[in-house]
Amino acid sequence: MRIAIAGGGPGGLTLARILHRHGIGAVVYERDADRSARTQGGMLDLHSESGQHALTEAGLAGRFWSAARPEGEELRILDPAGRMLLHHRPQPSSVAGRPEIDRSDLRDLLLDSLPGDTIVWQHRLVAATPRPGGGFALTFDDGRTTGCDVLIGADGARSVVRPLLTDAPLSTVALLAELSVGDVDRRHPDLAALVGPGNLWCLGESRILAAQRLGDGSLRVGISLPADGVGLDAASDTRALLAGGPGLGAAPDTRTLLDMFRGWSPRLTALVEAADGAATMRRIETMPIGTRWATRPGVTLIGDAAHLMPPVGEGANQAMLDAAELAAALAANPADPDAAIRAYEETMFRRIGPIAEMSARVQVMMLTPTAAADLLRFFTPEPAG
Ligand SMILES: Cc1cc2nc3c(=O)[nH]c(=O)nc-3n(C[C@H](O)[C@H](O)[C@H](O)COP(=O)(O)OP(=O)(O)OC[C@H]3O[C@@H](n4cnc5c(N)ncnc54)[C@H](O)[C@@H]3O)c2cc1C
């Protein structure tokens, strides 16, 4: 049985690793040229019941705890004047929490655990065509072709495998401008102190200025805005951003970004002014809640390819849990992969529905005019009794 996995993100690599532990070979086709072809983005907090569970199944829990940054769980929520509204500190040496790990460290940890020939770099899948006798013919962007008996789409938000199973549309729920500030302790100690070891969210009316400390001593800064512009004082804010960034036009300049934070404390807007280089713009897209499909022999989806949700802390965790559950099903039933796929999909659809609903609710909450009050209620435990 030739298993092909399209995409070497958290989902695809976790799947390949757990299959390997069960003695089942798989090939991961990844579009990146190599492991260092692009920066991997910010941190991920891995939850015990999903991301951490998958790493335990992968036999990598010990290495995860060596690379994890439990202090990265610290969260500070500020208002536009710079007043602290909430300060969550993780319990010291807690193993019950949701420790953060840099995406690049997670990717390295998974890549290093796989036999060298598992990942085939520089292979962007462009088409998967059913073969008459079963399985799929795979075509890559340089014209190369190969075949497989089982195809698993782990190729993220804009999956090429997804249309074999569903034509669920994507909708844009927010816009995100991403910036980076390097070597922050030396160059901007004031910003290092403001953000602390974890996450900072500054909540204004229908906009968020957030920053995250990474293990390499840099800050990742993000500006989130509602995609429809509702709640923004000047509709031109959204128009300017929609016109900016790769895939969206030219990148917005610092002045355009700062204009959205008129009246905010200069301590906070310094995060934008200190950024190295232009902003990267992206649309935050989602699939409809409750997306499911009729099982089709020889093909399935995991992670963002299966259930693209707003980025509120579940996507990578669920991708890794998908991987663990699909690998377990295939290992339990190697003679009948279609039965394994059916069992995996039923469990995954049931699990993802409520998580996608919760993620959508939090996403809406974060970009409403009353975000600060709503989020404080969300994070403040109900008094006992
Ligand atoms: C700003 C932001 C913050 C987030 N924060 C969190 C968080 O804190 N916690 C959390 O759990 N989730 C978070 N998420 C969500 C998380 O990033 C995704 O849900 C997760 O990465 C999905 O993993 P995946 O393996 O399914 O897909 P991806 O991570 O997208 O990986 C897909 C892989 O497939 C490759 N690929 C794509 N197309 C092809 C192709 N045609 N052929 C070959 N290879 C291909 C890509 O290069 C990539 O390596 C966040 C997302 C964003 C945007």
TrEMBL record:
<dbReference type="InterPro" id="IPR043683">
    <property type="entry name" value="TetX_monooxygenase"/>
</dbReference>
<keyword id="KW-0503">Monooxygenase</keyword>
<feature type="domain" description="FAD-binding">
    <location>
        <begin position="267"/>
        <end position="333"/>
    </location>
</feature>
<dbReference type="InterPro" id="IPR002938">
    <property type="entry name" value="FAD-bd"/>
</dbReference>
<keyword id="KW-0560">Oxidoreductase</keyword>
<comment type="subunit">
    <text>Monomer.</text>
</comment>
<comment type="similarity">
    <text>Belongs to the aromatic-ring hydroxylase family. TetX subfamily.</text>
</comment>
<feature type="binding site">
    <location>
        <position position="45"/>
    </location>
    <ligand>
        <name>FAD</name>
    </ligand>
</feature>
<feature type="binding site">
    <location>
        <position position="38"/>
    </location>
    <ligand>
        <name>NADPH</name>
    </ligand>
</feature>
<keyword id="KW-0285">Flavoprotein</keyword>
<feature type="binding site">
    <location>
        <position position="304"/>
    </location>
    <ligand>
        <name>FAD</name>
    </ligand>
</feature>
<keyword id="KW-0521">NADP</keyword>
<feature type="domain" description="FAD-binding">
    <location>
        <begin position="3"/>
        <end position="199"/>
    </location>
</feature>
<dbReference type="Pfam" id="PF01494">
    <property type="entry name" value="FAD_binding_3"/>
</dbReference>
<keyword id="KW-0547">Nucleotide-binding</keyword>
<dbReference type="InterPro" id="IPR036188">
    <property type="entry name" value="FAD/NAD-bd_sf"/>
</dbReference>
<comment type="function">
    <text>An FAD-requiring monooxygenase active on some tetracycline antibiotic derivatives, which leads to their inactivation. Hydroxylates carbon 11a of tetracycline and some analogs.</text>
</comment>
<feature type="binding site">
    <location>
        <position position="103"/>
    </location>
    <ligand>
        <name>FAD</name>
    </ligand>
</feature>
<protein>
    <recommendedName>
        <fullName>Flavin-dependent monooxygenase</fullName>
        <ecNumber>1.14.13.-</ecNumber>
    </recommendedName>
</protein>
<keyword id="KW-0963">Cytoplasm</keyword>
<keyword id="KW-0274">FAD</keyword>
